[in-house]
Structures are given as structure tokens and as C-alpha cells.
Amino acid sequence: MDKARKQSKSVTGTVASDRMDKVITVLVEMRKLHPIYKKHMTRHKRFKARDARNEASIGDVVRIRETRPLTKTVNWALAEIVEKAQKG
User: Fold this and answer.
1) Which of these, 8, 55, 76, 83, is most buried using a 10 Å CB contact count?
2) Is the dihedral angle over the CA atoms 60, 62, 66, 67 positive or is it negative?
3) What are phi and psi of 72, to 5 degrees?
4) pLDDT value of residue 3
5) CB within 8 A of 53, min separation 6: which ones?
């Protein structure tokens, strides 16, 4: 029987910190509609993601995907850099 693998979750966000070795902190902004008041609310969440080659830097827009737990706090990995930050 051929079972298809479940696709892992992925989110897009901005790199908030790259100070750790091989780990980045990604800030993801989510906009949700309030169930009663029908106003848009902005929520932020920070994820720690594995960046094995230290490619990403602060301000880059990146896509991260969920993986197995790599450390106590890291269970996301860098999938791709969508947009590099403007140097200026």
C-alpha cells in the first residue's frame, strides 16, 4: 500500500535575530478577524529555526518548515530565503 507523506507546515516571517550559531529567530505576523467585534487583530509569534549554513541575516524574509525536534526549543528549519534585506 502506497501512503503519501504528510506535508510539513511552513510559515513565512522576518528574521529577528541571527546571533546564535546555526539558529535564527523568525518573527511571524498573523492577522486574524475577531469573532465578535469583526476587527482585524495582529498577532506575533517567534520561532527558532535551524540555519545550518548561517545564510540568513536580520531583516530577511524567510520561509521555515516544521521538522522533528532538533534541540529543546528548535523544531523548525530554514526552507528558503524569500527576500534578502536591503543593505543601506
Assistant:
1) 76
2) negative
3) -60, -40
4) 63
5) none
